[in-house]
Amino acid sequence: MLGSTDLPVDSLTPDQFNAAVAAVTNAFGDPTRREIYLFVRDASAEGAPGVTATEVAEHFALHPNVARHHLEKLTGGGYVSVAVWRQAAPDGARPAGRPSKRYRATEVDAGLALPLRHDDVLASLLAAALDALGPAEAERLADSVGYRYGQSLAERMDAGAGHRSVRSALAAVADALTAHGFAAHTEESHGELTIVSECCPFGDTAQRYPHVVCALDRGMIRGMLSGLYGETSPRFEASRPDGDEHCVARV
Description:
Elements: E1 5-6, H1 14-28, H2 31-45, H3 53-60, H4 64-76, E2 80-85, E3 100-105, E4 113-114, H5 120-133, H6 135-157, H7 166-179, E5 184-189, E6 192-197, H8 204-208, H9 210-228, E7 235-238, E8 247-250
Helix pairs in contact: 3-4, 4-7, 6-9, 7-9
């Protein structure tokens, strides 16, 4: 997973344990998706530039849209990376053919992991820095960092692609949040689409600096939506650090 650090299972709170299981299940709960990951991993191990969604579809006798759906689940979790690739051309010649999106396997941790976990020394350093900045500046910085990180996630998930529908973008954001320990899903009510996050992977830090952590979360969501759908202003109506049952963002 992207930037993950292994955690002993007995050190996880119930919410963290459920979120870690959800992250793995979201990516590998489907048997076809597991086989697709192994197919991509084997191709990557052979030194190939990666496989295309068309190659996956043909190998598993799937509709190309279904193949892309499985690959997006894997890229959202950080198990597969995607890049735009063009066939090399002889010296002085222009590359022939259209570029293609190629998927390659990334390293997968063996145990349950929460990507946003940090060690005690780094936590102490961050706490001191946040205290020194002051609430307003710390929130502004957290939102900016989260936004840039969200944009980088969107680029990894959908390199070179045009913007998708808001429904598709929200589903991809929820998958990425789940892979990062938020146990997120989408809901629809009264014509509005919602991302609901059932876990906060920041733990005690979120209790000490709730508004800063929430600003980071909001920035991540806005950044991912910017990259996958376009600039938008989701409404953030609830947060676990503030005592709500879930974190809720509406579009």
